[in-house]
Amino acid sequence: HSTRVGFYSSTCPRAESIIKSTVESHFKLDPTIAPGLLRMHFHDCFVRGCDASILIDGPNAEKTAPASQFLKGYKVIDDAKFQLECECPGVVSCADILALAARDSVVLTKGTSWAVPTGRRDGTVSKASDTDGNMPGFQDTVDVLKQKFAAKGLNTRDLVTLVGAHTIGNAACEVFSYRLYNFTSTGADPSINPAFVSHLQALCPQNRDGSRQIALDTGSADRFDTSFFANLREGKGILESDQRLWTGDLTKKFVQRFLEVRGSLGLSFNVEFGKSMVKMSNIEVKTGTMGEIRKVCSKVNEY
Ligand code: HEM
Ligand SMILES: [Ca+2]
Ligand SMILES: [Ca+2]
Prior knowledge:
Blueprint: E1 4-5, H1 15-29, H2 33-46, H3 74-87, H4 94-108, E2 117-118, H5 142-150, H6 156-163, E3 170-172, H7 197-203, E4 213-215, H8 227-233, H9 240-244, H10 249-259, H11 269-280
Antiparallel strand pairs: 1-2, 3-4
Helix pairs in contact: 1-3, 1-4, 2-4, 6-10, 6-11, 8-10
C-alpha cells in the first residue's frame, strides 16, 4: 500500500475542496494560519511519520513538547474534520487533512500548487519524548540537519528546499535573540550582516517579551517566493540554522541555484518545493489497515 493522488475521488469526492475552502475562510480572518499549517505538517511528519500524532491531546502528548510550543492551526483542522465527518463519516484521515491544508496554505501565499497523494491513516500514539532527536533544532549544525533529514529519507537538496518554507511566517524573539546580544565577547553573531543587527535589536529588545514575533523572511513574510534565499545570501537569515545553509558547501550551492534565474544550474524553488513536499508527506505513512481514521482529530477513537 502507498498513498496516491485522488484517494478520496469516489469515497468522498468533495474532500479536497472542503479542506481548501475551510483553510481559505480561516486564512481570510487570520493569515498567520498559512505558515502555521505548513509548519504543523512538517512537525507531524518528522515524528512517527505523517500520521496526525501532533494533533492528539494529552498530558505528555507531542504537542506539549518544547518543539511544538508555537504551533498553530489546530482549530482549522478540527473545523475541516467536523465538516468532513458530516459529508462522509469515517473516511478522511486527519493526517491527510494536514497534508492537504499545508499545500493549500502554500497556494494561499502565492506559491505553486502540487498534487498531494492521499490515503494516509491516523496513528494512535503521541508522546512528547518522541520529538527528541527527530525534530531539527535551530541551533543544529548543517551536518546534524543533514543527518536528521537523511533519517527520514530526505537528501540535502530536500533540506534546503523544505527549509525554504521559512519564506513565510514568523519566529518568536526567544528562539533568535541570543544571536544579537553577547553571542561573542564583541557582540552579535558575526554571521549576521553587521548593517542589519541594530534593526533586529529594535525588533527583539534584550530581556523583553520573548514571544514577540519576527519575520523569518524579512520584507516578504507573507509571500511564498525566493526572497528567503536572497536574505541568506545577504546575511539576513533569522534562525541560526537558516543562515548556516549559506555556510555548508552543498547547501550553499542549492541556495545559489534557487537564486539563479536563468542559466543551466538554475532551479525553480516553487517546482522543487512541491516535489520535496511530496517526499516529506510520505514519511513513514500508515496505509491500508494500519492505524485508524480518527473521528475527532484531537483524540484517538474509543471502541
Ligand atoms: C532545519 C530544519 C528546521 C528548523 C530548525 C526549523 C525551526 C523553526 C523555528 C525555530 C521556527 C520558529 C518557531 C517560533 O518561534 O514560533 C520555525 C517556523 C516555521 N517553520 Fe521551520 N524549521 C525547520 C524546517 C522547516 C520545514 C521543513 C518546514 C515546512 C516544510 C518549516 C516550516 C516553518 C514555518 C512555515 C514556520 C513559521 C511558522 C509560523 O509563522 O507560525 N520549517 N521553524
Ligand atoms: Ca506524526
Ligand atoms: Ca517570502
